[in-house]
Specification:
By secondary structure, the chain is of the alpha+beta class. The protein is built from 3 helices and 13 strands; from the N terminus they run H-E-E-E-E-E-E-E-E-E-H-H-E-E-E-E. It has 2 domains: 121 residues, no CATH class; 93 residues, no CATH class. Helices cover 17% and strands 30% of the residues.
């Protein structure tokens, strides 16, 4: 009986020691020197990530799955810009960390790349994976990713004159090229719909994509000196998605 108790105690202590070692060797998120004054960098499974600046650089209520594996995923909440200025209430974002290694001047294992997907408005489709702050890694904030020099991947140019009626702007795509998105946007820009579509929303099939023209949201405008109302538009074609704002006239 005593031997059995001792054996059980030894196994328990060994398991506790193993857990402690595993916890101590968990990879961290980038480098604590990525952004002095930031939050979450250099930590394992951070619940909050913050650049220390605008609300758009704050991720909170983060939960992770697979931390310690080559790629880990998570969910969190972040503020995204309203088209007319300021921010929407927090929206849910998808997170992914990858590229395990060590940051220059550091010895601990770290995930060197952080990406996220966010919607353009609460409840909207998630856009493409974007690197955090557009940097090559989260080891150094001073190393921008060259692929972001011409704008964020997954973002397409407006079709029409930005801010003018019948323009489709702020086009975000996932698993869809801008070349594929442009004719959808062009058709949307010239689309004339009944007033009921603005009040209640409506659906149309455009260039093979199933599109939802959402009901108008009060106060959602171009935000210019002569603001025009905006209509949210989301489309889906298989696993590909498209979201944008259509500028309406006052007629």
């Amino acid at each position: 009986m005593l031997r059995a108790c001792l054996a059980g105690l030894i196994i328990f202590v060994a398991l506790m020691a193993t857990s402690a070692v595993q916890a101590a060797t968990q990879p961290v998120l980038g480098s604590p020197e990525y952004l002095p004054g930031g939050t979450g960098f250099g930590e394992a499974t951070p619940r909050v990530i913050f650049n220390g600046g605008s609300p758009g650089g704050l991720l909170n209520r983060i939960s992770w799955t697979g931390w310690g594996k080559p790629t880990a995923v998570g969910t969190g909440y972040v503020a995204v810009n309203r088209p007319q200025g300021n921010y929407y209430p927090l929206v849910r974002a998808s997170l992914m960390v990858s590229v395990l290694g060590t940051c220059p001047g550091r010895s601990e294992r770290a995930y060197k790349v952080l990406k996220l997907r966010v919607p353009q408005w609460p409840g909207g489709p998630l856009g493409s994976w974007l690197k955090w702050s557009g940097t090559r890694t989260i080891c150094s904030y001073d190393e921008p990713d060259p692929s972001y020099e011409d704008g964020s991947p997954g973002r397409c140019d407006a079709v029409g004159e930005f801010g003018a009626p019948d323009t489709v702007q702020s086009i975000a795509v996932y698993r869809m090229t801008c070349r594929r998105a442009e004719p959808i946007a062009r058709t949307l820009g010239g689309l004339r719909v009944a007033q009921g579509c603005y009040r209640q929303g409506c659906r149309r099939t455009i260039n093979g994509a199933r599109c939802h023209l959402h009901r108008l949201v009060s106060g959602e405008t171009t935000g210019t000196d002569y603001p025009y109302p905006l209509q949210r538009v989301s489309c889906r074609a298989g696993k590909s998605t498209f979201s944008a704002f259509k500028v309406l006239s006052y007629d």
